[in-house]
């Protein structure tokens, strides 16, 4: 009856660490003949190297403690491939409490693992989409808020500065009025790409803050470096030469920028810092646009 099922029964004598029995279904699943399973070493060597230490140590410790257990691992097939296996183990003990043998079943869980991996991939993809601005492909406001919280806490511990550059496209409503919203979307994408080219470090964040406003989060960046990056943003934007010509605007698209740097200490909050730098941006707007204001 057991040999007619897909579950593969087996028994190991604890004293000798030899297989007393293993079902013939093992050959169908892994390619190894039934009589090739002699000792525990055959089980160990036919396991994926990345799984081996953890699974063996776990199973031995649980068996010694007399605890029934389960273990998932990749078993090697005779042709060098791998199949995901779930081993369900029952520990049989003598009347004196010492381990007599292990009786268990091997189950092929490859399909389940593939489904789990696909679900995990889709979850990660969805999570990434939820943190990405759909129009420009850069980080969105949610992603910025998460990273700001992380970097703010790190800066408080390390004492290193954090800088922000906030950028807003000048006369963007007039740009849309003159060229249409499709052109406006393309303008936002080109500006985002230019800003992404400015920051090079993995921890730096370029995000769309909302509408035509963008923000750069620059961990471990002092005031001089932040001003230099802001200047580079202006240069990149100028080099795009996106024709504007809308009412009240110049020939090409420009932007106003606010820049700030802080040493995180005391009651200083991330929100207050963002608001202060954003205030510098609007000071740049009031000062005539196409300029940088430093906090």
Question: Can you give keywords for this protein?
Answer:
295 residues; alpha+beta; Beta-Lactamase; Alpha-Beta Plaits; five-stranded antiparallel beta sheet; five-stranded mixed beta sheet; 9 helices; 10 strands; elongated
CA gyration radius, whole angstroms? 31 Å
Q: Mean pLDDT across all residues, rounded?
A: 93
Integer tally of domains: 2
Please give the order of strands in the largest beta sheet.
2-1-5-4-3
Strand content: 15-25%
Number of helical runs? 9
Sketch the major β-sheet. Answer: 5 strands, antiparallel
CATH C-level of the largest domain:
Alpha Beta
- Annotation, overall tally of beta strands: 10
Topology:
Blueprint: E1 8-13, E2 18-22, H1 25-30, H2 40-45, H3 49-64, E3 69-76, E4 82-93, E5 99-108, H4 110-130, H5 141-158, E6 162-169, H6 172-179, H7 181-198, E7 205-210, E8 213-219, H8 223-240, E9 255-262, H9 270-286, E10 292-294
Parallel strand pairs: 9-10
Antiparallel strand pairs: 1-2, 1-5, 3-4, 4-5, 6-8, 6-9, 7-8
Helix pairs in contact: 6-7, 7-8
Quick overview of this protein structure:
Its cofactor is Mg(2+). The protein is α+β, with helices and mostly antiparallel strands and about 300 residues long.
Description:
- This protein has 295 residues and is α+β, with helices and mostly antiparallel strands.
- It has 2 domains: 2-114, 2-Layer Sandwich (Beta-Lactamase); 131-294, Alpha-Beta Plaits (2-Layer Sandwich), CATH 3.30.70.
- It is built from 9 helices and 10 strands.
- The protein has helices at 25-30, 40-45, 49-64, 110-130, 141-158, 172-179, 181-198, 223-240, 270-286; strands at residues 8-13, 18-22, 69-76, 82-93, 99-108, 162-169, 205-210, 213-219, 255-262, 292-294.
- The strands form 2 sheets. It has a 5-stranded antiparallel beta sheet with strand order 2-1-5-4-3, with helices on both faces.
- Helix 9 (270-286) links the parallel strand 9 and strand 10.
- Helix 6 packs across helix 7.
- Its cofactor is Mg(2+).
